[in-house]
Amino acid sequence: MKTLLNQVVSMPVGAFVVLVLAASLEVFGDACFQSGLYRSTGNQRAAWFVAGVAMLGVYGLFVNLPQWDFGRLLGVYVALFFVVAQVVARVRFQQSPTPAIWLGGGMIVAGGMVITFWRG
Question: pTM for this structure?
């Protein structure tokens, strides 16, 4: 698994796919905790917590298993995390972004692009 992930992240498209999957796992894991804390009780609450722990654990392995310069990729990761979080907030929790979120999110995405593409 480690060798396969190292081969995948050695290509720009592969690294992008791994970062999208990692951001999705982290956001969905957090969403499971939100659902467990505020939208369920009893056994259903426990199931949400178990799902959240599992997703965040897989996220941790998935993002740390490859040998890559994660600091260099952090900009694009933060931007992807923001985008995935907004999609999940809208679809799962029916929360629409406010103008402040749109503006701040635009800055996050722009900052991610600067960190990723600046050569100098």
Answer: 0.87
